[in-house]
Amino acid sequence: MAMDAPVHVDKHSFHQVVLQSSLPVVVDFWAPWCAPCRLIAPHLDALAKELSGKIVIAKLNTDEDPELAGTYQVSGIPTLMVFKGGEVVERLVGALPKEALKQKLSRHLS
Questions:
Q1: Strands, DSSP E only, in 1-110?
Q2: CB–CB of 9/1 below 8 Å?
Q3: What are phi and psi of 93, to 5 degrees?
Q4: SS3 30
Q5: 56: buried, middle or exposed (CB in 10 Å: 19+, 13-18, 0-12)?
Q6: Structural domains in the chain plus CATH codes
Q7: What is the DSSP pairing of strand 87-93 with strand 25-30?
Q8: What's the CA gap between 70 and 67, in Å, rounded?
């Protein structure tokens, strides 16, 4: 499932897109009103293109799906979680520069 743009997920698509993915998936827990979330959005867009076929970038709006945010104990946004084989293998909180994000995500590439 190579994607060169972030895919939007919700409670209906989360299981298939994130938990059943053969590639590592980065889920960006975000909200439209969150300034740091808007700050990293272009970085995630660029990384989705650069790392297409190696990792999937997914975005989950916590205002629209607060249950999923609660399930994964998201208390601050943006929170990025890296899933591999349906399990969370890394959690990043806050807005990071693009190169720092890329470096952290590169550890999980297929």
A1: 7-8, 25-30, 56-61, 79-84, 87-93
A2: no
A3: -120, 135
A4: strand
A5: buried
A6: 7-105 (3.40.30.10)
A7: unpaired
A8: 5
- One-letter amino acid of 19: L
Question: If 0-12 CB within 10 Å is exposed, 13-18 middle and 19+ buried, where does residue 75 land?
Answer: exposed
No. of helices (H) and no. of strands (E), the chain: 4, 5
d(CA 71, CA 106) in angstroms, rounded, equals 26
- What does each of the 110 residues of the chain score in pLDDT, given as a tens digit? 556 889 999 999 999 999 999 999 999 999 999 999 999 999 999 999 999 999 999 999 999 999 999 999 999 999 999 999 999 999 999 999 999 999 999 999 86
pTM for this structure?
0.93
Distance CA 18, CA 37 (A): 20
| Catalytic residue annotation | 34, 37
CA distance 52 to 39: 21
